[in-house]
């Protein structure tokens, strides 16, 4: 399975939030906390569910408590894909 890219994650985040265009093309969101991006815990749970469905990577709810930015989420997902 191929790695999840930031663009792929943006698509998943938009889908989870029910929004078509939350992010501008090329916008750097890697190190912006999810809360500042407008994603609450419910939106992040939906994001994790979509990642599991699309990429086969499961992230436990308790692990999400320590994931605050898109970069951290990508690292977690891609680390599991590589394993």
Account of the protein in words:
- This protein is mainly alpha-helical and 83 residues long.
- The chain has helices at 6-17, 41-55, 61-64, 70-82.
- It is globular, with a radius of gyration of 12 Å.
Any chance you could write out the topology, listing elements then pairs?
Blueprint: H1 6-17, H2 41-55, H3 61-64, H4 70-82
Distance between the termini: 11 Å
Principal-axes geometry comes out as globular
Strand content: under 5%
Order of SSEs, N→C?
A: HHHH
Tally of DSSP β-strands = 0
Radius of gyration: 12 Å
Low-pLDDT runs of 5+ residues are: none
Task: Output the number of helix runs.
Answer: 4
Average pLDDT, all residues: 89
Largest sheet: none
Helix content: 40-55%
Q: Pairing-aware structural class of the strands and helices?
A: mainly alpha
InterPro entries: ACP-like_sf (IPR036736), PP-bd_ACP (IPR009081), Ppantetheine_attach_site (IPR006162)
Keywords: Phosphopantetheine, Phosphoprotein
Protein name: Act minimal PKS acyl carrier protein
Organism: Lentzea xinjiangensis
